[in-house]
Design a protein that fits this description.
heterodimer; A: mainly alpha; globular; B: mainly alpha; two-stranded antiparallel sheet; 71% helix; 4% strand; disordered C terminus
Chain lengths: 313, 481
């Protein structure tokens, strides 16, 4: 495999990992007011992502850092083209991060309400905007951007609801399952619309039938989403979460597959790429470091593997 | 006013703001890890209380450092796309490494530390805070290596109008980076030590008043036991003093590197217009120490230091017509503010160490910390903070008009496709948001310092909470069922 293709795959992997992991963070952030009826339950819901959300966000930092290093022109073009939407994503990430960090440290219920508002807005903005930005990049139309935004937003909400169902017990868990079922009424049609548009938008193929792999990824994403909904209905939380995560992974694969080999209009991967020396060095460092990173991050999920209960003291 | 000016303002505002929080993340994290280590080794309860108390202040600040840091990573691509395309091959590598090797470590282990008190064995839990602070300090190294490359580009060649890295090791061991890392990280420890001093000074004054109606008084203070603030204050004084020596030493190295690598910045910092042999140095205007600048920049009191006007002529010959001088007053004054404010913090620490020295011969109780010194300690927060920000202004305003010294001008670095309106909108949003958050953080920190350390149960499994609303909230389910 060409080094540039490999690095494009690495970046696709990092972005997809980010969407899978922070996807449920965003969902949990948006659903917190819906799923909890009191402060103890609110803590229970937010506690599901408390120890892990910051580590999940580093997937984005790494994806963007890797883009900067491996494909400077792609990095610069993407961020300067979508200037204001990206700025809004940043605003979202700021108020959400601060809300999550400060919620347990403010002294009053007013302070907590502000933190909750930050978490809500800050989860909504990136959940919608990432879908809108990438759909706009693929199709170049406002309608497509809206459809993409609704898709990523509803998928995050669904993924988050399934995650809460997996990580909690008691009334919050049943509410999360119910919410997941309701969300699927939006997420599934949105997925069909957004995902079926991806293969045809690929710049590399004039005829959509010539992109069987993209179709395979898109259809797998739809199938996984349907499976996730069915499994939630049957109360198989763990499998349902695996299914919604796979659905996001399939979407990521289709998206970045369609962006190859021209991740921006008029710019190919080869043109955007850094020199072979940089790519080589980063490959070696990445290959050595990544297993450790994945290992300790997985360990942190293992430490916090237990279902949370509403804390009664 | 065009998009370039606003983009520069945005970069300046967001970067200075980001750097208000970074020093505390770097230095206070290590301080908290040290306190927890002391608790782990001695088992003394007050170390645990201090760990949790300073840990909370650390976390309030940490969040701000994280979220404002995300903006930094995106901003290069958003506002400086031409710069990003030119430098990405070289400059992007340390940024990618920073995320992969430092940020994952920092964020994952900090999550484990915050939520792992009752889930991890004590020893493992202690290791998580150390892993997190190692991550923070490592990130400082990578980003400073990237920054140093802008001032002294090494390990690259220019191919087709883009810098191509030829030697990562050269980039990571850039002489400028090796001088800058101890200077900035040492400065961060001075700021963090100053923060701890300010908190201790405030608490000492408050507890000495011993107002029975004061809800923020700790149990030891009420019981009239020796102030629990003496130990952290001593530790912070030692931290500031050692870090201060590191800052001064690396600052000396930096001055000599400036002489070789960025003579324009050096000349601007002293306001030296013409080439001068045995150049003097004026720490404050009006006072002039003969030959000191020559000595500081070469260790030879008679050496010739180049002046801004001569350098301007040389650069015009080399790079074509243009103004190659940075904003002279800003560079001149930030240099002085950095030195005066920074050194006064170190002097304060040295004084404090003398005042709190142990009595070796007789087993008398330790000297009481004088009230005037406790009051002076409150200054230890703003002084080094202003110094470190002034240092960055000197460093980055002094780099102008270049983004990459001798290779790329700032004017040629900006995103051509981003309009004035777009930058104006984002600048307004970030400035307003940052302003509100700064106020909120200040209020939050002050409240927590006022409340003081909460009592801890020696068994960390039962985490006490003194937040009444919290308790009410927790009790609610009981009442319901």
């Amino acid at each position: 495999m060409e080094l540039t293709t490999f690095w494009f795959a690495v970046i696709a992997f990092l972005w997809t990992g980010y969407f899978v992991l922070e996807g449920f963070d965003f969902g949990v952030g948006m659903l917190a007011p819906v799923l909890s009826r009191n402060e103890a339950e609110r803590k229970q819901v937010l506690g599901t992502i408390g120890p892990v959300w910051d580590g999940n966000e580093v997937w984005l930092i790494t994806a963007v850092g890797a883009m900067f290093a491996a494909f400077p022109a792609w990095y610069a073009g993407l961020l300067s083209t979508f200037y204001l939407p990206i700025a809004l994503v940043l605003v979202g990430l700021i108020v959400r991060g601060i809300g999550l960090e400060w919620r347990g440290k403010v002294h009053s219920s007013t302070g907590r309400a502000r933190a909750d508002l930050g978490i809500l807005i800050g989860s909504f903005l990136p959940a919608f905007l990432w879908g809108a930005i990438f759909a706009d990049l693929l199709h170049g139309s406002a309608t497509a951007a809206l459809a993409g935004g609704i898709f990523s937003l509803s998928l995050c909400v669904l993924h988050g609801a399934v995650f809460v169902a997996l990580k909690t017990s008691g009334p919050v868990r049943s509410r999360a399952r119910r919410t997941a079922m309701i969300t699927s009424a939006v997420a599934l049609p949105a997925a069909v619309v957004a995902l079926s548009g991806i293969p045809g938008a690929s710049a590399s193929v004039s005829d959509w039938a010539a992109a069987p792999w993209l179709w395979a990824c898109a259809l797998a994403a739809m199938a996984a989403l349907s499976a996730g909904i069915a499994l939630t209905w049957r109360g198989r939380d763990g499998w349902a979460f695996a299914a919604t995560a796979s659905s996001i992974a399939g979407t990521g694969a289709a998206l970045f597959g369609a962006l190859s080999p021209a991740p921006l209009p008029g710019l190919t991967i080869a043109e955007a790429a850094s020199g072979p020396y940089t790519l080589n060095v980063l490959t070696w460092i990445g290959l050595v470091a990544l297993p450790f990173v994945l290992g300790y991050q997985a360990w942190s999920y293992w430490v916090f593997r237990k279902r949370l209960v509403a804390e009664v003291s | 006013m065009d998009a370039l000016d606003l983009a520069r303002w945005q970069f300046g505002v967001t970067t200075v703001y980001h750097f208000l929080f970074v020093p505390l993340t770097i230095g206070l994290g290590v301080f908290v890890a040290g306190l927890q280590t002391a608790w782990h080794r001695t088992g003394k309860e007050h170390y645990l209380r201090l760990t949790k108390f300073f840990g909370k202040l650390f976390l309030i600040n940490f969040g701000m450092g994280v979220v404002t840091g995300i903006v930094q990573e995106f901003q290069f691509g958003m506002n400086w796309s031409e710069y990003s395309i030119f430098v990405g091959d070289v400059f992007g590598a340390p940024l990618a490494l920073e995320a992969l090797l430092a940020f994952f470590l920092e964020s994952t282990f900090l999550g484990l530390w915050i939520f792992g008190w009752d889930k991890l064995p004590k020893r493992v839990h202690l290791a998580t805070i150390w892993a997190a602070v190692i991550g923070s300090n490592l990130s400082a190294y990578f980003i400073l290596a990237a920054n140093a490359w802008m001032k002294h580009p090494v390990g690259y060649e220019v191919v087709d109008g883009r810098a191509r890295m030829t030697d990562l090791w050269a980039v990571l061991t850039n002489s400028t980076a090796l001088a800058q890392v101890p200077h900035v990280v040492g400065g961060a420890f001075v700021v963090a030590g100053g923060f701890v001093l300010a908190v201790c000074g405030y608490r000492i004054l408050r507890e000495r008043r011993n107002d029975p109606a004061d809800p923020g008084l700790t149990t030891p203070a009420r019981e009239g036991s020796a102030s629990m603030w003496r130990t952290p204050m001593r530790a912070a004084l030692v931290m500031v003093a050692i870090a201060g020596v590191v800052v001064v030493g690396s600052g000396d190295t930096s001055a000599r590197l400036l002489y070789e690598q960025q003579p324009m910045k050096l000349a601007a910092a002293e306001g030296l217009r013409h080439d001068t042999a045995g150049a003097p140095f004026s720490p404050v205007p009006g006072v002039e120490v003969p030959r000191l600048l020559s000595f500081l920049s070469t260790h030879d009191p008679n050496a010739v230091v180049q002046g801004t006007e001569n350098l301007q002529a040389t650069f015009e010959k080399q790079f074509g017509p243009g103004d190659y001088r940075p904003n002279l007053p800003v560079v001149y004054w930030s240099f002085r503010v950095m030195i005066v404010f920074g050194l006064s913090t170190v002097a304060l620490a040295a004084l404090g160490l003398w005042l709190t020295r142990r009595r070796r011969r007789t087993p008398r109780p330790p000297r009481e910390i004088p009230a005037w010194f406790a009051r002076a300690c409150v200054l230890a927060l703003p002084l080094p903070t202003i110094a470190i920000i002034a240092g960055w202004l000197l460093s980055e305003v002094g780099r102008q008009p270049w983004t990459v010294q001798g290779e790329l001008l700032t004017a040629a670095s900006v995103s051509p496709g981003v309009s004035l309106t777009e930058v104006a909108i984002s600048l307004a949003i970030f400035t307003a948001l940052y302003g509100v958050l700064a106020l909120a953080e200040a209020v939050l920190l002050v409240r927590h310092v006022r409340t003081g350390p909460e009592p801890v149960s020696p068994d960390p499994l039962t985490r006490p909470s003194h937040d009444d609303e919290d308790r009410a909230a927790r009790l609610q389910p009981t009442l319901m069922y």
